[in-house]
Amino acid sequence: MRAPSGAVAGLCSASATMFAVGMAFLGYWGLYEPGGWRSADLVIVVLALVGFAALGSVPWIVTTPVADDGEEKVAAARRALALEVVLIWLSVLVSVLT
Length: 98
Known about the structure:
Keywords: Membrane, Transmembrane, Transmembrane helix. By secondary structure, the protein is mainly alpha-helical. Helix content is about 70%, strand content about 0%. The protein is elongated, with a radius of gyration of 16 Å.
């Protein structure tokens, strides 16, 4: 089954938008503030970095060449995007709650 027209561009745009949201969060959160880090700070950074890794995989997954009749990678890219969104927002939630 072929992906809908614009699915690849939409997924790439959504991943770029979430990258901007994640970077704005890390900049606002105070990644560069002086002082020691608490364990909650490490959890926030790890969640965000794993989310950014999933984010980087979205364009790579969705633009991987497939055979003419082969299954497209749009579903896998959607799952990676969903994982990235959940991890970035989870890091935001952890930072708000701590």
